[in-house]
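Thread: LCP family protein, structure

OP (GT): Posting the sequence first so everyone is looking at the same thing. Length is 545 residues per the record. Can we get the structure tokens written out before standup tomorrow? I want them in the notebook alongside the other entries.
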Amino acid sequence: MPRTKRAVVDERARTAAEGRPVQRPPVRYHGPSYQELRLDAAGRTQARRFSTLGPALFTTLLSTVVPGAGHLALRRFRTGAAIMATFVLGVVTLVVLTLRADRSDLIGTLLSSGTLVGGAIGLLVAALAWMAVIVRTYLLARPTGLRTGQRVLGAGVVALLCLGVAAPLGFGAELANSQRQLLERLFPSLGGGTPAAEAIGKGRLNVLLVGSDAGPDRRGTRTDTMMVASVDTHTGRTILFGLPRNLQRVTFPPGSPMARRFPQGFHNPSDPLSGDYLLNAVYAYAHSFPEVAPAGPTTDPGLNLLHSSVETMLGVKLDYYVEVNMAGFASIIDALGGLTVDVGPEPLPVGGITPTGRRVKPDRYIPAGVQHLDGEDTLAVARSRTNSDDYTRMGRQRCLLQYVLQQKSPANLLSNFQGVAAATTDSVSTNIPRQVLPALVKVADSAGTVALESVSFDPNLADPNEPDGRFDTSRPDVAFMKKVVRDTIAAPAATAAPAPPTTAPTSTPKSASGSTRGRGATDDDTAPTGRPAPTKGATSLAQSC
């Protein structure tokens, strides 16, 4: 009959006391399906090795789920405990840091190039280490004398287990690297050792938002959309000041080359209706005559000249700019999975007016009402002028911005990040330093539920200095514009009921329909009838939609 483990220990102890060589034959154990237990001089059991493939693969699976668990099952306690402790400590540390950190801190961390590099390297190292544990567990647990088919099966299962670990960690590393590349390509680095705290240490930041209409059907580039986002860095309150593309007689800094060339504003007396002398043509004019543009803040003379004009008219210092190619905007919307938009009570024509202003038959129509649109149709909603006017279009553009903020969460951005990154890199330029981004995230996060507000310098704005009580885009009162900006910033925030995250408004944006003042030769708009009462200050963007 088989001897007990105690009997074996006693016999080996007597042999050692008599000075004879100790023989250690394998001891058969009538238990689970592992091959044998070997005992050391103190009678302690040593590592297992299974006699069949199934238990070996199951043990390898344990190491895939929790690194170190397979080693513990094989009675390699020290190694298994060290591996498992490292894994558990890492997971607990990440969970604690995530739960204790503010959301803005977490997002700010993802906007740090150094952190992203470290994260990508860490994920790759973790993937390699985890796969090494899986393979090592299988090699320790694998029975000897397996047939060829069993060896192939075992190797295939281990490869799949390694792939299951490597795929998510590798994707995370690739995502971190893509985010780093996007940050470094899109956002410049602060020069001269300027600290981020100094760059965002102002009580208010003013950012010029520009949408250009560059495209294969366009001769030159014009700024189709121009807004200034004025952000209170303490409360996050943000006001959008919209500037119509057809604003005439725009002014420039006193004493500048453009002010000397156009003392009465950007205007051509010999061709007073020329579309080449509207606000949206300032960019193109600087490219034709770069000597009149300031040297900064960018290397683009068109942006520099527009920058100086907007500062002069609004009486604010612009800190940064963001320029978006409108065709690229469509690609970004596609990458985010489209946008739900209220087109309005009537179908919206796509096309119908050529870049030169000639009226043609529309290519097609976007159905009325709430529609989920792709990037191309979303861009058409933003740019359509047929049976409409520039001011209605400005309203639609502001509403589209509100829709994006309502409907596209960080989860949307993360799940579609690769496409968004590619589209953004090709279509967006800015001078916002990447070191400032974490601080800007904190500002945005501190805003909480504060709604965006907007003021548009179009005939829908009340102007008591004008005979009809409405702002005149053909002869803008710059002093009045500056006063509106000052008063709006100083006034209490406009309020609005929270808007549903995925629903759209039930009416078209409020506009100054019916006014033809300030229209250039490139506009062939037919304004709808019915003019709402002019507004006297900022309105909530959600409310205006």
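GT: Both are above now. Quick notes for whoever picks this up: The chain has 19 helices and eleven strands. The two ends are 91 Å apart (CA to CA).
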